[in-house]
Write a structure and sequence with these properties.
8 helices; 6-stranded mixed beta sheet; Nitrilase/N-carbamoyl-D-aminoacid amidohydrolase; about 25% strand; about 20% helix; binds 3-methyl-2-ureido-butyric acid; globular; alpha/beta; about 300 residues
Length: about 300
């Protein structure tokens, strides 16, 4: 008998800076109810799904940004989502900014996704590994992308968890452009990767790429899925948020690399697919039989070196 996991990619339209957490959580719950109507078992929300994409502004005093971060999960604002999901027996994956204070008093800021099982228990919180953008204010930009100022990169890497009768991994936005993200999870047998994203259509360092945003988005997730024999659920925040137009095009990609469902709008929209987890084995057991065909002994540069070293 096949193992089916019915998944909902819960795309969000824009969240403006004056939108309250409560109003956003209401939108998340509307999508949750749509998911229930479709027999969805797992709902995936975008990166930074509780607030506007605040790294587009640079604040000299970073503590003035503290209100964009959650300090616990669940919390008062998100408890209604946790309660409703548990009542409906739907699991979910939620992206948000997390501010933690360590035992030594140091404060740590991460861009995270928390995975919650159908019984309401927290499976894991993944912290973003690849942090794009810049550390300092860049006056010539039409908008900032100061993620490297607002978030520390994770040193925990990419985990895979047994949940939803499957092997589930997580990554966030820019992680999806790096083949290493998928492969580290592929090497742990991942069957479904959950990825929230916020991608401005205007890529300031090279506007020539703007027209290719949709192509590149599909390209990386389709190839990552195929080369690792895994489902990939990519979920966007789309539309014009605080004047910045963001790519939507949320999609669910099969282990074959085929897109099986894709958002049609740039707004709040639920995209559903019945994912047969056993399809992963078709690829993991043939062309991408890692144990049989991989050659780690000649891939040393991938972990020993970061930038390019030209031949002498
Ligand atoms: N939120 C992101 O990580 N966004 C990045 C940047 C480069 C636009 C992305 O890769 O989509």
């Amino acid at each position: 008998m096949s193992r089916i996991l019915t998944v909902g990619a819960a795309q969000l339209g824009p969240i403006q800076r004056n939108h309250s957490r409560a109003s956003v959580v209401e939108r998340l719950i509307v999508l949750l109810h749509q998911a229930a109507d479709h027999g969805v078992q797992l709902v995936v929300y975008p990166e930074l799904a509780l607030t506007t994409f605040f790294p587009r502004w640079y604040l000299d005093d970073i503590t003035e940004a503290d209100h964009w971060y959650e300090t616990s999960m669940p919390n008062a604002a998100t408890q209604p989502l946790f309660d409703e999901a548990k009542r409906l027996a739907i699991g979910f994956c939620l992206g948000y900014a997390l501010l933690e204070t360590a035992a030594d008093g140091t404060r740590h800021r991460h861009n995270v996704q928390t995975l919650v099982e159908r019984d309401g228990s927290i499976v894991a919180t993944y912290r973003k590994v690849h942090i794009p953008g810049h550390e300092h204010y860049e006056p010539d930009r039409p908008f900032q992308h100061a993620e490297r100022y607002y978030f520390e990169p994770s040193s925990e890497g990419f985990g895979v968890w047994r949940a939803f009768g499957s092997l589930i991994g997580m990554m966030i936005c820019n992680d999806r452009r790096w083949p290493e993200s998928y492969r580290v999870m592929g090497l742990q047998g991942v069957e479904m990767i959950l990825c929230g994203y916020n991608t401005p259509i205007h890529y300031v360092p090279d506007p020539g790429q703007d027209i290719l945003q949709g192509f590149h988005n599909a390209l990386v997730m389709q190839s990552g899925a195929y080369q690792n024999g895994t489902w990939v659920v990519g979920v966007a925040k789309g539309g014009v948020e605080e004047g910045v137009d963001s790519l939507a095009q949320s999609m669910i990609v099969a282990p074959s690399g085929q897109i099986v469902a894709q958002a049609l709008t740039t707004d709040d929209e639920l995209v559903v697919a019945r994912c047969d987890l056993d399809w992963c084995a078709k690829y993991k057991g043939t062309l991408f039989d890692f144990d049989r065909y991989r050659r780690p002994e000649v891939y040393g540069r991938i972990t020993s070196q970061r930038g390019v070293e030209l031949p002498g």
